[in-house]
Recover the amino acids of this structure.
């Protein structure tokens, strides 16, 4: 990103009963953005602050957002990626909880109540929670597999709404990916999303690592909070960064070691995480990979 970043901000919704601030970064993805927002409007139990960051908006998404009286927004004329977008949106957050969701997701009924119930049960703010994705072809052990379409043209909303709640799943360890939610105090303490990972690849585990470093050990995927995920619609259009090596250079271990050994991502939830026992082999591999970052960063 060579040119100066200029962000405009519009805060226009004044409600006293908003529970979460839902941040949706979007890059010329209007049809999916509309579906995501509409699902939040009709399937949420509580009222929330909706914040969209519009990257470019050349597809009409800026004009559409401006027409929506219930959406606050930030805007950049260039595509600044997820990290800058989330940090920009933070400046107009009006609640105590920031929830980041991708624009290619559809939230299922009760998704927000399950998160609110979990937060209430925890009783403190030292947590990081994720919703559970439903995917046509599950991309990780954190997901549930159910084919309700690969894109908007094939999306079977009726099938999803009839069947999503009965799909077997359990609470799981290792919250990282969106939809995820954190208290604003925690977000501010660790400095939000790290811009060295722009446009965003590997920024999710980096954020989790920053929470780990501040002492948080409650990384929980909430199985009753469910969303349908079409799958990296914007990611397919960008030039990806070398976040894998950036993560290793920054933290001294690979993202796979962190999410697998530290966060135990996808394993059934069994309480607070503890310090992992990293094997000698993993340590040797980490040293080797750190050396490789000199050539690949």
């Amino acid at each position: 990103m060579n040119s100066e970043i200029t962000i405009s901000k519009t805060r226009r919704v004044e409600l006293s009963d908003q529970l979460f601030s839902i941040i949706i970064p979007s890059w010329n993805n209007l049809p999916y953005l509309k579906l995501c927002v509409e699902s939040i409007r009709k399937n949420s139990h509580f009222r929330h602050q909706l914040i969209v960051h519009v990257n470019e908006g050349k597809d009409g998404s800026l004009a559409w957002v401006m027409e929506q009286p219930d959406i606050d927004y930030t805007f950049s004329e260039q595509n600044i990626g997820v990290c800058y977008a989330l940090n920009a949106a933070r400046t107009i957050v009006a609640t105590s909880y920031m929830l980041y969701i991708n624009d290619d997701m559809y939230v299922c009924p009760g998704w927000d109540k399950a998160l609110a119930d979990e937060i209430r049960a925890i009783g403190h703010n030292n947590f990081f929670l994720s919703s559970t994705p439903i995917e046509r072809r599950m991309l990780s052990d954190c997901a549930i597999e159910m084919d309700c379409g690969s894109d908007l043209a094939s999306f079977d909303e009726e099938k999803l709404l009839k069947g999503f709640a009965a799909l077997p799943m359990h609470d799981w360890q290792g919250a990282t990916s969106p939809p995820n939610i954190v208290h604003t105090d925690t977000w501010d303490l660790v400095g939000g999303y790290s811009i060295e990972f722009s446009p965003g690849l590997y920024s999710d585990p980096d954020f989790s690592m920053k929470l780990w470093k501040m002492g948080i050990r409650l990384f929980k995927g909430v199985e009753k909070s469910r969303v349908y995920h079409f799958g990296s619609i914007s990611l397919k259009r960008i030039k990806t960064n070398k976040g894998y090596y950036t993560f290793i250079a920054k933290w001294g271990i690979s993202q796979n070691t962190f999410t697998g050994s530290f966060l135990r991502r996808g394993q059934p939830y069994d309480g607070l995480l503890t310090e992992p026992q990293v094997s000698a082999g993993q340590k040797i591999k980490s040293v080797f990979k750190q050396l490789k970052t000199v050539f690949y960063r």
In short: The domain at 7-240 is CATH 3.90.550.10 (Spore Coat Polysaccharide Biosynthesis Protein SpsA; Chain A).
